[in-house]
Automatic annotation (TrEMBL):
PANTHER family: DNA-BINDING TRANSCRIPTIONAL ACTIVATOR DEVR_DOSR
Start and end residues of each HTH luxR-type domain: 50-115
GO biological process: regulation of DNA-templated transcription
Protein name in the entry: DNA-binding NarL/FixJ family response regulator
Lineage of the organism: Bacteria, Pseudomonadati, Pseudomonadota, Alphaproteobacteria, Sphingomonadales
Pfam family, one: GerE
SUPFAM superfamilies: C-terminal effector domain of the bipartite response regulators
A GO molecular-function descriptor: DNA binding
Keyword DNA-binding assigned: yes
Entry superkingdom: Bacteria
Amino acid sequence: MTSDTPGEMPEDEARVRELMRLLRKADEAAGEEQVLGEFRIPRSRIPARHSGTIGSLTKTEVAVLRFLGWGRANADIATLLAISENTVRVHLNNMCGKLQLDGVRELNALAGLLFHPLT
């Protein structure tokens, strides 16, 4: 639903802002980080289900995951990493297998949780 009143934000936007506020608070409270490839991820963002297996990702897989979390398309990721689009798909499928996910949609959600900026 959207708000018709001037000055009020839509209900969905308010929910997203509240979620981002809670994630920032959890990031600050946790203090601990896990290194993934070249990146440091607050442990509070890593679901318990994946805490053991996420460390098995290669540096390239983590880079692909990072760009996926930023909302980049496969073709963009391929260009940014100087690899083929088919190689990007192979990395996505390998990550789904390693993390025991049902598909790229779940991987996309996880990538957003791990790497989406909260600012």
